[in-house]
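request received
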Amino acid sequence: MSATPATWLLVALGTGLGATLRFTLAHTLDARWPTGTMAVNVVGSFLLGVLSALALSASLLALLGTGFCGGLTTFSALMVQSADRGRRVGTAYIASSVAFSLAACWLGFVLAS
Amino acid sequence: MTRRALAATIPVVLLGGALGGMARYAVDVLGPHQLFPWGTLAINLVGAMLLALLPAFRFVHRHHTIPSFLGTGVLGGFTTLSAFSEETRSLVHGGHSDLAAVYVVGSLGAGLAGVLAVRHLTTPAERAEFHDDEGDE
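response:
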């Protein structure tokens, strides 16, 4: 991976936009069950699966993959939201988020291959 | 959160996310390049524990945009579930299902254990305020 000043800027831009979309959806949809955060994690994993199957330039991968998908999805909020929701809901939330994210990533990769 | 507070929070999350993403990229570039995704594992564990710890700091409660800047923005942009998913898929695809299983179980087990341990350093009131300021999205 060659890190030029341009790729740093593309990562920053992509992550900033992805994080903004994540915040907007979580703000709108998260409740007792964090539907918004779960949706961005699954969609972001699907998208990165698609991108990984395509022969993209380093710049596009920095903007869309490392940047946008990385900013759209979150591991830290998944863990903390789960801890906040108690053992039963928290376990179901983590298990379903990860299962759907892994399946979506695999599906995206297969569809784009 | 009021409409006006929401409008003020969006640029804060955008900036925080950009900084967190660059920190993650720095680990990608400078970190170890091995088959097992040590870099993402470290990022996700450190990021999750820091997010659980943030409500304990007094300065975080000084202004309602600080939780969304540091939590939802910086740490949300720093940690990633998409790279975790793609790295797992890639390990399975390459015939390393055993490593993929260790990666998934290790990330989730250590992440949750770390968050639950760190949580004891915060009070329910601190966590509730942090949540109301949308620091954990």
